[in-house]
Design a protein that fits this description.
By secondary structure, the protein is α/β, with parallel strands linked by helices. About 45% of the residues lie in helices and about 15% in strands.
Length: about 500
C-alpha cells in the first residue's frame, strides 16, 4: 500500500476509510484472537487495568486513567500506538491528516478540486500519530484548538472572515491520531470547557468561526485523584463525556514489584556483570516501598511511586560498584550496608505529613529501611523477644553474650569483601546460628548481616552509624559508656 502515490491509485486499491476508533478496535480484535501481548512491558495489571482498557477500546470509548503517580499511566497511553496500522494515507500538504477518501479540511478539498485523481498521497507512520500534551495552568485554547493567524491573513491577503486564516491547534492537527492530555485536573476549567463539543459533536469555535470538523481522535486523559482537591478538578460535564474511567494501582505483591524494578532499572552491563544482587536485597528494596505506602509519616494520598524502587536499585548498584572500585575488586555482592546509598532515592520520592516533616526526610528514610529490615528478619528467623513454646534457651543468646562481653564490630560502607567477611565471622555464634536456618547457599554472610541489623531494630544490640561506618555493640554497655563520658 505504501507504494501508492496518488488519490486515484488509492481508490483503485480497494482502500476504505475508517475512524481511528474502528482501527484500534479491529487491530485489538486480531491481537486477542492470536493471543498476542497487547501492552508489552506493563506488569501487574494483567487481571485489572489492562482488561478494562481493552474493553474500552472495543467499546470505542475515550479513556480517563485515574491513579496515583508512578502507576504506568503514560506508558500505557504510549503503547496504544501498537494497535494502529503501521502506515496511514493522508493528502500530501494537508495539516489535518486528511483521509484522501474522506477529507475534512478546506485545504484538502481545494487540492482534490485542483488535482482530482492525481492528488498526491503521503503516508504517516504509526509513531507519528501519537500526540501528548502535559496540562499546565498556562495552556490556552489557542494551543489546543486554534486561533486566527494575522501573519497568514496578511501573507495570503485574506480577510479575517475567511477560515483559511485559522492556525489550528494540537487537537485538530491530531485528526486520526491518539491524543493524550496528562494531569487533566491542572487544565483550567475554562480550557476544559473547550473540549466539550470536540469530544461529543466535533464542533469547534475559534474567534467567532464555527467550524463543523468531524474530527476522529482517540482521546486518553490521565489524572491523579489527589488533584481533585489539591490543584484543580475535572469539571463534571467533561467527566460525563469521557466514556470510560479506569483506576490504576500499585503492584499488589512484592514479586510483581521486583519484576517491574528489574525491568525498568537502568543498570550498565558492567554493573550487571560485576555485581551480584541477592534476592533478599531485592525483597528488602521493595519492602521499603510497601512500608512507605502504609507509613503514618508519609502522605498516603500522594502515593509512593514505583520510581522509588527503580531509583533505589540503581543507587544500590552504584554504591556497591563504587565500593568495589575503591577496593580494587573485580566482582562483589551487594550488602545491607549498601542501603545507605539508597537513602537519596527515598527522600526525593515521598511526600511527608506534618509529623514526618518534624522527623526530617533523612530520619524517615532510615526509619523505613529499619522497619523493612525488621519485617524481613522475621520471615527467616524467630522473634527475638518471644521464645517458642517448649524452647528453654534463647537462640540468640550466644550472639548477645558476645556483645554484652564488651565486644563490638564495625562494618565499613566502603570496606572490602575480605574485611566484611572477617568482621562478621568475629561475632561468636553468628555463623552457627545462620546455618541452623534455611538460607540460600553462598549467601550466609548476607544473612549474618541481616541478623545483626534485625537484633539492632529490636533494640537487643546497639547500632551506630558514624562517618560511613556501622558499629554494632551491646546496648547496655553503650548506655553506660555514654554515662561515663557524661560524668567526665
Amino acid at each position: 500500500m505504501k507504494s501508492i502515490k496518488t488519490l486515484g491509485e488509492l481508490r483503485d486499491s480497494g482502500y476504505k476509510p475508517r475512524s481511528i476508533k474502528e482501527e484500534l478496535r479491529e487491530n485489538l480484535i486480531q491481537k486477542l484472537r492470536k493471543k498476542q501481548t497487547v501492552f508489552e512491558g506493563v506488569v501487574g495489571f494483567e487481571d485489572t487495568v489492562l482488561p478494562d482498557i481493552e474493553r474500552a477500546i472495543l467499546s470505542q470509548h475515550n479513556v480517563l486513567l485515574l491513579g496515583l503517580r508512578g502507576q504506568a499511566k503514560t506508558r500505557i497511553a504510549r503503547l496504544l500506538v501498537n494497535l494502529l496500522d503501521e502506515y496511514m494515507p493522508v493528502i500530501a500538504g494537508s495539516e489535518l491528516n486528511d483521509d484522501p477518501l474522506k477529507p475534512i479540511s478546506r485545504t484538502a478539498h481545494d487540492l482534490i478540486a485542483k488535482h482530482g485523481d492525481k492528488t498526491p498521497v503521503a503516508w504517516v507512520h504509526r509513531n507519528d500519530r501519537y500526540v501528548e500534551k502535559l496540562a499546565t495552568p498556562d495552556v490556552s485554547i489557542a494551543d489546543l484548538v486554534g486561533d486566527v493567524d494575522p501573519i497568514k491573513a496578511a501573507t495570503l491577503k485574506l480577510p479575517y472572515s475567511d477560515e483559511r486564516v485559522i492556525h489550528f491547534g494540537l487537537i485538530p492537527r491530531s485528526h486520526r491520531c491518539i491524543f493524550v492530555i496528562n494531569e487533566l485536573p491542572d487544565l483550567q476549567a475554562r480550557i476544559q470547557v473547550s473540549l466539550f463539543n470536540i469530544l461529543q459533536e466535533g464542533d469547534m469555535q475559534i474567534r467567532g468561526f464555527k467550524l463543523r470538523l468531524p474530527l476522529e481522535i482517540q482521546f486518553l486523559f490521565t489524572a491523579n485523584p489527589e488533584d481533585y482537591t489539591n490543584r484543580g478538578s475535572i469539571i463534571t460535564p467533561l467527566k460525563d463525556r469521557i466514556e470510560s474511567q479506569i483506576l490504576t494501582h500499585y503492584p499488589k505483591t512484592i514479586e510483581i514489584a521486583k519484576s517491574i524494578t528489574a525491568q525498568e532499572a537502568n543498570l550498565s552491563k558492567s554493573q550487571r556483570d560485576a555485581i551480584e544482587f541477592p534476592d533478599l536485597l531485592m525483597t528488602l528494596l521493595e519492602t521499603i516501598s510497601f512500608t512507605a505506602r502504609k507509613s503514618e509519616l508519609i502522605d498516603e494520598k500522594s502515593g509512593v511511586s514505583a520510581r522509588l524502587s527503580i531509583s533505589g536499585f540503581e543507587n544500590l548498584a552504584s554504591t556497591a560498584e563504587r565500593r568495589m572500585l575503591i577496593n580494587g575488586e573485580k566482582k562483589t555482592t551487594a550488602r545491607i550496608t549498601d542501603f545507605w546509598g539508597v537513602i537519596p532515592a527515598i527522600t526525593g520520592k515521598v511526600e511527608l505529613v506534618y509529623e514526618g516533616e518534624q522527623e526530617g526526610p533523612y530520619a524517615v528514610a532510615t526509619n523505613l529501611i529499619g522497619e523493612s529490615i525488621k519485617k524481613l528478619f522475621l520471615e527467616y528467623f524467630p522473634h527475638p523477644e518471644k521464645l517458642k513454646k517448649g524452647e528453654e534457651r534463647d537462640p540468640f543468646g550466644t550472639i548477645k553474650a558476645y556483645f554484652s562481653g564488651g565486644n563490638a564490630i564495625e562494618l565499613l560502607n566502603d570496606g572490602s569483601d575480605k574485611d566484611y567477611r572477617l568482621a562478621l565471622e568475629k561475632v561468636a555464634g553468628l555463623q552457627k546460628f545462620v546455618k541452623n536456618y534455611k538460607v540460600p547457599k553462598g549467601e550466609e554472610l548476607l544473612f549474618m548481616e541481616l541478623v545483626l541489623h534485625g537484633l539492632a531494630e529490636f533494640n537487643l544490640i546497639n547500632k551506630d552509624y558514624l562517618e560511613s561506618t556501622f558499629t554494632f555493640k551491646d546496648m547496655l554497655a553503650d548506655i553506660l559508656g555514654d554515662n561515663m563520658f557524661d560524668d567526665m
